[in-house]
Amino acid sequence: MRPDDFPECADPASFQTEAPQRGVTSADFRVFIASCVAGLAGLLFGYDQGIISAALLTIEHSFPLSLLGKQAVAASMVAGALLGCLIAGPVSDRWGRRPVVALAGLIFLLGSVGSGLAASAWHLTGARFILGIAVGGASQIVPVYIAELAPAPRRGRLVLMFQLAIVSGILISSLIGWLLSGHAGALALLGRGGDWRLMFFLGSVPAVMLLMGVSVLPESPRYLAMRGQAAAAMRVLRRLRDPQAAPEDEMREILSAAAETGNWRTLFSRRVRPALIAGAGLAMFSQMTGTNAVLTYAPTILSGAGFGHNVALLTSLGMGVAITLATILGVWAVDRLGRRRLMLCVLPGSIFALFLLAAVFLHGDPQNAGRWLAIIGLLLYVLCTLGSINAALWLVGAEIFPLSVRGKSMSLVTISHWSFDFLVSMVTLSIIAILGVSGTFLLFALITVSAWVFIYARIPETKNRSLEAIEESLSDGTFLHHR
Q1: Average model confidence (pLDDT) across the chain
Q2: pLDDT tens digits for 16-26?
Q3: Which regions span the lipid bilayer (predicted)?
Q4: H or E element that contains 294
């Protein structure tokens, strides 16, 4: 497929055969609304990932859970995510980005209801696995979809809306978990042992909103061009760009990129390999540094260290506020400082926080001032980690791959993310039992140092560069020259 294969694109003047449709809202507002609707999948992602930390404290009132059982319930969603992201990439390349967003919303709804109705630990594990399929699909397709809609100068902040939605979901889950865990009197609506069911049922609300909102989403113009539908792609692009932004020029770049065909062999070729190492490596380190493990097990760790359940859940709520603020700052900074520079400047704060936590827990459970240092360390850790490597993860992954293999490549990025999330989720409590809390935080600190070195050596700067320009740098061997 070549740009001149499309007669309607052969003559520059032919792009102007119909006037841009402006309507009552601006083109930028249309992109923003589409990003918000798709971002509801991120809200569900964060909510379903975060709510399990509070639910684990009360599920045992309904049926017993061993240490292995708790890890299985927490990790089952991650196992489902592996399947979801593996399926979503090829499906999005074949059937489109928008249908995959809709399918994720439907699976979110089924998984939320199934989790709330679970009659045993096995049923709950299965329902969480179904939720994981939706989470994996959403984490694969939504960043790609938003990146393909957004103009280059605003792509960073718009894609980071997905991460903002994720951490907002985590914050909401922390608040609901605290309110429904028996610490707010009348707000514990279902009584002892029933509160965790309502926690899961509430996840169906944004799922229904996402299903309703899909009707207003356009298909990605880059996907349409890749499928040979140049005229339809141009119509969508006109609606998403101001005329002053020269959408005709952008369309020609898109058609040039769409002229290349790609398959799994292309993805593993020498040309694409630097992007594959960067995307999959960043996804790996985002989990090996312990982010989701800390978010999932923080209430359990604090409760075991002598903090009351209420204090542990309030700290989890404080962590939700911290990561939301961190992501808001990331949305502001990512298009100003750049993706690479943001990670290199902020990630050292995570390293300091982890060493602090290792020191605080060195002699066992912290006492008096040590407990406050533990809380401060946890808050600083999530603030810096979620504001750097986790904020840029989905954005960088959605930017660096060629159009012809973008869906498949993002599947591998998300497979890397969820594989290591599954590994860390399954072994965190066991590692704590072997190394202790202090040793576990020290291990995460050393891994985070390795992550900083990897980012310095293997991640290019993509700020203010079009997706097509990034793709061209892979072809001419300058991918890692952009610092």
Answers
A1: 82
A2: 434 444 443 47
A3: 29-47, 67-88, 100-123, 129-146, 158-178, 198-217, 275-299, 311-334, 341-362, 374-397, 418-435, 441-459
A4: helix 291-304
